């Protein structure tokens, strides 16, 4: 038997897939589960466009086997907005012009979400470090980092973590 | 067409050693998979079974114990960055900080980095300056090897197909020591090293001279290695910029880099002495900083 039946939580809902042993989580998400927000960029764990959270850790889905995800909690960019309403981070990125071609954007949103979940007041260096595995060739990163700083400043001002209304 | 691979996620240590005993080289061990999955996709590996060990309990901790600090096989680069015990060891922590990006550091393991045995493995130089020992287990027996005997060549180690590397132990750090890691790449993040250097100096506070010196270099030969000519030059001397420059030049002995897409052999040979001198200078600064705190 060379396929694996794998059940994991995907954006809060249990899903079961039957996958070949070496199938990547990215292929499973995009081609079996129709979630195309995670992008296929380099396919070598270099560009971060496919970043998803597995048990709250950011990983490159293009080089992570689906079969290793059994019983784990997978979150993709689709699960980070609230019923289609963009998160504070997503809105801040739109406002600050963090997006040009948009291909890398989902990966940045996921990586920064992981940062903000563990660090309520990250420094500029912390933010730059958190996106060091995400490559953007349009914006030059400045607007992306500014967007994160804006979300952090708003959240701290409101004193309510990420729940503040932008 | 790639032949299908069976994926087996082990949940106990016994399950792993039993499967290795049965399958030998037909099994490929996988933890975070950041090297294995890429090599599979490129067709460089074709195992029958991917033997997944991320769920095996007891392998994921950093613990101080007899003989030094033990890093289990599942200790990730992110853990080396954040654990207070490894954080204090700049030759390791700064290397872990510069492996790939966050996504690689979050699940990529230190043991995976040495077992993969890339000439450019970033953790290996720092582990060499700390006299790392590699622990291997198979069904019914275990053994321990010094890291410099474990890595045998490019992508080649002393691990038998039936063996699991369970962890590494690094020796206690001497007093009055300072260490550093210097990586040369074209950009700061997501780089495979062009040259990597780890150094550690112990300075005798009564004489102000170097009592012990460790220099290890990576990406300039098939195997990351210590540079004994540099070390011998340093021991017994006072730390100065001229001495560090000379020790840097001495590191060229034993360096035999390749031309590749990242850098030419000529560039690597030009930058190596400077990278060694810089690492030594930072190590020396760290000794001074530690003394002024004490």
UniProtKB/TrEMBL annotation, chain A:
The keyword Membrane does not apply. PROSITE patterns: 2FE2S_FER_1, 2FE2S_FER_2. GO terms for molecular function: 2 iron, 2 sulfur cluster binding; metal ion binding; oxidoreductase activity. Keywords: 2Fe-2S, Iron, Iron-sulfur, Metal-binding, Oxidoreductase. InterPro entries: 2Fe-2S-bd (IPR002888), 2Fe-2S-bd_dom_sf (IPR036884), 2Fe-2S_ferredoxin-like_sf (IPR036010), 2Fe-2S_ferredoxin-type (IPR001041), 2Fe2S_fd_BS (IPR006058), Beta-grasp_dom_sf (IPR012675), Diverse_Oxidoreductases (IPR051452). Coiled coil: none annotated. Residues 4-80 form the 2Fe-2S ferredoxin-type domain. The keyword Acetylation does not apply. This is Xanthine dehydrogenase, Fe-S binding subunit.
Automatic annotation (TrEMBL), chain B:
SUPFAM superfamilies: CO dehydrogenase flavoprotein C-terminal domain-like (SSF55447), FAD-binding/transporter-associated domain-like (SSF56176). Keywords: FAD, Flavoprotein, Oxidoreductase. PROSITE patterns: FAD_PCMH. GO terms for molecular function: FAD binding; oxidoreductase activity. Residues 1-175 form the FAD-binding PCMH-type domain. InterPro entries: CO_DH_flav_C, CO_DH_flav_C_dom_sf, Diverse_Substr_Oxidored, FAD-bd_PCMH, FAD-bd_PCMH-like_sf, FAD-bd_PCMH_sub1, FAD-bd_PCMH_sub2, Mopterin_DH_FAD-bd. It holds the Pfam family FAD_binding_5. PANTHER family: XANTHINE DEHYDROGENASE SUBUNIT C-RELATED (PTHR42659). This is Molybdopterin dehydrogenase FAD-binding protein. It comes from Nostocoides australiense Ben110.
